[in-house]
Design brief:
Blueprint lengths: L2 H12 L8 H18 L6 H10 L10 H12 L6 E3 L5 E3 L4 E2 L28 H10 L10 H6 L15
Antiparallel strand pairs: 1-2, 2-3
């Protein structure tokens, strides 16, 4: 290669590259892609399937709450969908089958989270439920117990919940 050609190639290599997207748009695209990937692993449990998983993880009777309480809560918060995400007006998100809020319990895009469960909010979208169950066990240790969830207070608390686990085998 001639010296002039070599200099031209080096100039093209060293020239500043034009960005296809502004940096903010790129981060938004990456965030959306991660949500799509998480939702591609989504699972919508059946009532009895969820009851069995929760039973196997030891939630039956945990802190005085029966499986029916947990199944009722999961239905009214997410429709048994592990990938459910709800965006709140304050910028926080409710995540996973139990709609665990990012303001206190998990680390999301909001850097001001207490992250009391020491997990990323996307971990709560996993159909495995291990991280989710560890987190809800921490939440119900709070003074309000399951009363931390508005859905449980309105739809499950003080009601006959036997139908939620009726016919399920563990």
């Amino acid at each position: 290669m001639a010296s002039a050609e070599l200099e031209a190639v080096e100039a093209r290599i060293m020239a500043p590259r034009r960005q296809l997207f502004p940096p903010g748009i790129m981060w938004l695209a990456i965030s959306l892609l991660s949500c799509l990937l998480a939702s591609s692993k989504a699972k919508v449990f059946s009532r009895c399937e969820l009851a069995k998983v929760l039973h196997d993880f030891g939630l039956d009777g945990y802190r005085g709450y029966g499986l029916a309480d947990w199944v009722c809560l999961a239905y009214f918060t997410s429709g048994f969908n592990t990938a459910a995400v709800d965006h709140e007006a304050d910028g926080s998100t409710n995540n996973g089958i139990f709609q665990i809020n990012s303001r206190r319990w998990c680390k999301g895009l909001n850097l001001n989270s207490d992250n009391l469960c020491h997990v990323y909010c996307t971990d709560l979208l996993n159909p495995n439920l291990k991280d989710t169950i560890i987190c809800v066990m921490k939440i119900v240790q709070e003074t309000q117990g399951m009363g931390n969830w508005e859905a449980w207070r309105h739809h499950c608390q003080g009601k006959d919940l036997n139908d939620w686990v009726d016919g399920c085998e563990f």
